Amino acid sequence: MSFSLLLITTFFVGFLSYYVWMWTYWMRKGVKGPRGYPFSGVTHLFRNYEYPAVRVWRDWTKEYGPVYGITEGVQKTLVVSDPEFVNEVFVKQFDNFYGRKLNPLQGDPNKNKRVHVFASQGHRWKRLRTLSSPTFSNKSLRNIMKTVEESVVELMRHLETGSAGGKVLNMLDYYQEFTLDVIGKIAMGQTDSMMFRNPMLPKVKSIFMEGRNYLFLITGVFPILAPLFRYVFSRFPTIQPAFDIMNIIEKAVKARVDQREADEKSGIEVSGEPQDFIDLFLDSRANVEFFEEEAKDEFAKVQITKVDKHLTFDEIIGQLFVFLIAGYDTTALSLSYSTFLLATHPEIQKKLQEEVDRECPDPEVSFDQLAKLKYMECVVKETLRFYPLASVVHNRKCMKTTTVCGMVIEEGTNVQVDTWTLHNDPKIWGDDVAEFKPERWESGDEQFFQKGGYLPFGLGPRICIGMRLALMEEKMLLAHILRKYTFETAATTEIPLTLVGRTTTAPRSVNLKLRPRHSD
Ligand code: HEM
Questions:
Q1: Which chain regions cross the lipid bilayer (predicted)?
Q2: CA 465 to ligand 1 center in whole angstroms
Q3: Which of 252, 282, 277, 328 has the alpha carbon at shortest distance from 140?
């Protein structure tokens, strides 16, 4: 055998052995679960847009129980639906599970210059999280509220025209226009409403569609190819929506920096109030003291020697990107599900309308009035129990080998929550678990649910940073719509909803009629 043939054979044997070794990980540990095939493990089964991963996990949980193991390419993952296990990983042992399960195509969280708060880990995450947090402070939310209300008013105009003559509307389309409009104005430097003419919409939408599934499959199985793909996308950003969007954000931030410099040169006095998130991030140096306090509090075990206390230009682009992506789809879906559940539960809708009429009598809805919409809060919480739309990201990566609920979990193992099972577990929620019942949240005794059993926004220190913004947007829009209209099902309403998706779980459509209330 020639030397080169020997080399090639050795390479192939080594290559195959590595993949078989990875694939047999859980078999060697004696952990049950679906096996799939060498190389892919079960990854290929998560690429069906029509049958989202969350449904696949749920099916397997029925077969294998609350803790089982799968391999996804070269990654090993435990899928869990035991609340104690979840609480341990997300809250109690956060120091051992501070990373996320990422696809290599998302870049190396420790090296990517544009890493964002969602993908980063460890010190980098802590720093980005702390510097991003003021964007969702009470003061900032009160400012943002004006922008949200402008978009609400604009959407109301579109709803009025669209629903004229009893026409059925796909509410998902309307909510997507709305949430993109809001986030475009607060994170992209957009100045006017762009509803129904926003060129960003198809780009942002395509991130959540099925087209990218195969790319993720390839890089999941062969991570070595990810840097090559990333290089090509960075050279030709228009062929890949995420890179294309980053490029657009980069231009918006650059324009703001140039404008600030030009104002400064010509001695123009600029108001100290930030216009939007771009300003907030450019000013983030100002929050140095806040960061130092936080750092002492939460990462007490970690020795912090020297930290960079402001965001770099690339980090600003990363943060704005993730706010845009995380803020647009999730909120639109949550609104769509709430609306569907209200239309199919008229008595609950009526009770909610009564609350809105009582608490929000003026044409404008104020921040303080929103806080009084307690039943609305219950409706939203119950909606997200029914449809935990972002559960694909309910995961953590083990950063240090540890034991959880008696099971040794090795560094590098992912823990993925099967949230749809958890949120439908009669042991947690009672025998009426299948009922849409906002009243279950009225007692205010949420401790029980929170302990690893309910996590629509995640759990622990990495809980969704935009949660309060999402709730504000949702409550504000629903208050305006419900004062004017009653949602009704139509012949084309899908009941039950057909759920599709990849990163998030979406209804295929939410076709509803909006009956004007003055005709009640
Ligand atoms: C109904 C709407 C929303 C839902 C259901 C949702 C859900 C989630 C979930 C499940 C996580 C993962 C949490 C964890 O790992 O424990 C997350 C993280 C995150 N979300 Fe949201 N989200 C929503 C709205 C928003 C909005 C409006 C924004 C920003 C504008 C946003 C920005 C983020 C960011 C930046 C993270 C990463 C946090 C971190 O890793 O520290 N989300 N979200």
A1: 6-26, 214-233
A2: 6
A3: 277
Pocket of ligand 1 contains residue 325 by CB under 6 Å: no
* Whole-number pLDDT of residue 447: 61
Residue 464 annotated as lining a ligand binding site: yes
Question: Can you give the pLDDT at residue 398?
Answer: 97
- Gap from CA of 455 to ligand 1 centroid (Å): 11
**Any alpha helices (H) in 345-466, and if so which ranges?**
346-359, 367-371, 374-386, 419-422, 426-429, 447-450
3-state secondary structure 113-176: CCCCCCCCCHHHHHHHHHHHHHHHCHHHHHHHHHHHHHHHHHHHHHHHHHHHHHCCEEHHHHHH
CB 459 within 8 A of CB 90: yes
Task: State the average pLDDT over residues 157-172.
Answer: 97
Closest residue by Cα to atom 14, ligand 1, is 458
DSSP per-residue codes, 90-112: IIITGGG--B----GGG--TTT-
Side-by-side strand order, sheet with 485-489? 169-170, 511-516, 485-489
Ligand 1 pocket test target in 172, 188, 457, 462 with most atoms within 8 Å of CB:
457
CA nearest ligand 1 atom 18, residue: 464
> Which residue reads 């050795």 in tokens?
10
Complex ipTM value: 0.99
Residue at token pair 């220190």: 461
Q: Alpha-carbon distance 127 to 132, whole Å? A: 9
What is the distance in A from the centroid of ligand 1 to the CA of 294? Answer: 20
Residues 409 and 31: beta-carbon distance below 8 Å: no
73 lines ligand 1 (CB under 6 A): no
Cα distance between residue 241 and residue 218, in whole Å? 18
Contact between residue 79 and residue 45 where contact means Cβ atoms under 8 Å apart:
no
- Please give the distance, rounded to the nearest whole angstrom, from the Cα atom of residue 15 to the centre of ligand 1: 38
pTM over 0.90: yes
**Is the beta carbon of 333 within 6 A of some atom in ligand 1?**
no
Give the atom of ligand 1 at the shortest distance from the alpha carbon of 328.
27
Residue 37: DSSP 8-state: B
Q: Which of 387, 464, 471, 472 to mutate to test the pocket of ligand 1 (most atoms within 8 A of CB)?
A: 464
Tokens 């009893």 found at = 166
Write the single-letter amino acid at 177. E
Kindly indicate the confidence band of residue 498, based on its pLDDT and cuts at 50, 70 and 90. very high
Tens-place pLDDT, residues 332-379? 999 999 999 999 999 999 999 999 999 999 989 999 999 999 999 999
- Ligand 1, atom nearest to 395 Cα: 15
Whole-number pLDDT of residue 322: 94
